[in-house]
Amino acid sequence: MTKRVLCTAVGGVTALGGLAAFLVIQGLDEADKWSSVLSLFFTVAGFALALAGFVTRGPAQSADQAVTGGSLHQVRNVTGDVVITGGGSTGTPPTAAPTEGQGGGTQSAHGARTAGDLHQIDGVGGAVRIEPPTPDSAS
Predict the structure, then answer these.
(1) Per-residue DSSP letter, 105
(2) Do 80 and 119 contact (CB within 8 A), yes or no?
(3) What digits encode the pLDDT tens for the residues 23-80?
(4) CB count, 10 Å around CB of 69?
(5) Fewest beta carbons less than 10 Å away: which of 47, 68, 118, 124?
(6) b/e string for 35-66 if b means 16 or more Cβ within 10 A?
(7) CA-to-CA distance for 48 and 55, rounded, in angstroms?
(8) Residue 138's CB: how many other CB atoms inside 10 A?
């Protein structure tokens, strides 16, 4: 556990303990009123965080820092059929020239190194067919 996570956990437990002690000191009726007000603010904060997460969500498909044994295919929002033919590579992954994702931020493969197959397919309006490598391509 990192120091930041530990400090956050300790801070959260301390804050909850302090809130519980405060509500106990207030008595049942006052604690009920305080909890109603606090729940309103927590609900608004939760809604704002959910909305922010929805608006600023990251890529729909990601292969960031992936190391594979062949090629990398990212397919998104295709109205027709998709056919991917395997290359049959059995080499080791490259150590340089990482493959970056394509697709305008909808798919990601930042830092991916490939020497085999990795398929990212989303939003295809037709059929998707991934064919195995042919004996000719496995040389």
Answers:
(1) T
(2) no
(3) 999 999 999 999 999 999 999 999 999 888 777 665 566 666 667 666 777 676 777 7
(4) 15
(5) 47
(6) eeeeeeeeeeeeeeeeeeeeeeeebebbbeeb
(7) 10
(8) 12
Distance CA 67, CA 77 (A): 25
Residue type, 36: S
Cα separation, 90 vs 86, in Å, equals 11
Q: Are strands 118-124 and 72-78 parallel, antiparallel or unpaired?
A: parallel
3-state DSSP percent of the chain in helix, strand and coil, to 5: 40, 25, 35
Model's pTM, two decimal places? 0.40
**76: its two tokens:** 């998104």
- Beta carbons within 8 Å of 34's beta carbon, 6+ residues apart: 22, 23, 26
